[in-house]
Amino acid sequence: MGRQGLASRIVTLVEDLARPIVEAMGLELVEVEWVREGGRRFLRLYIDREGGVTLDDCEAVSRSVEAELDRLDPIPGSYYLEVSSPGLERPLKRDADFVRFAGRKVRVITYAPVEGRKEFVGELLGLVEGQVRLRLPASRQEPEREVAIPRDQVAKAHLYVEF
After folding, report:
1. Are the C-beta atoms of residues 28 and 48 closer than 8 Å to each other?
2. What is the pLDDT of residues 87-120, one digit of tens each?
3. Do β-strands 131-136 and 145-150 pair in parallel, antiparallel, or remain unpaired?
4. Do the beta carbons of residue 156 and residue 106 sit within 8 Å?
5. Average pLDDT, stretch 2-14?
6. What's the predicted TM-score (pTM) here?
7. Which of 95, 75, 113, 70 is CA-nearest to residue 157?
8. Which strands make up the sheet holding 80-84, listed edge to edge?
9. Cβ(76)–Cβ(124) under 8 Å?
10. What's 151's DSSP letter?
11. Angstrom distance (rounded) from CA 121 to CA 115
12. Which domains does the chain have, with CATH numbers?
């Protein structure tokens, strides 16, 4: 199995293991990452809840998930476990995210061009009949308009914050 296949398997395994633990604490498991940086391996869990998460939430999830990982020992070798908030530019992964964050500014990247482009930044209007709907701001080339992106064409999406 290649490195990418192993990483995908570890992410799926940890999602399945961590999700019930995280949800039992009234939190949401947003994303799991398995990455190598500077010769070290990191298992990163991103958690959230309405109103945000605290350091105590992160510590509690870390302790509980670490205990279960130690008990089952599903990942060979050593690694660092990190638990944190997804941050200001939280990824939108599930259909429910596209409903929950309606009204917020988002960035969406598609697998294939939609209306001639693959990147969109605009106000999320929601998920309607399998389509992510955005209101795009006016530009020099075109007036403000709405676009519907098929959900299955969304490669990546996240909240977008301008500084």
Report:
1. yes
2. 999 999 999 999 999 999 999 999 999 999 999 9
3. antiparallel
4. no
5. 84
6. 0.82
7. 95
8. 28-37, 40-48, 80-84
9. no
10. G
11. 14
12. 3-84 (3.30.300.70), 95-159 (2.30.30.180)
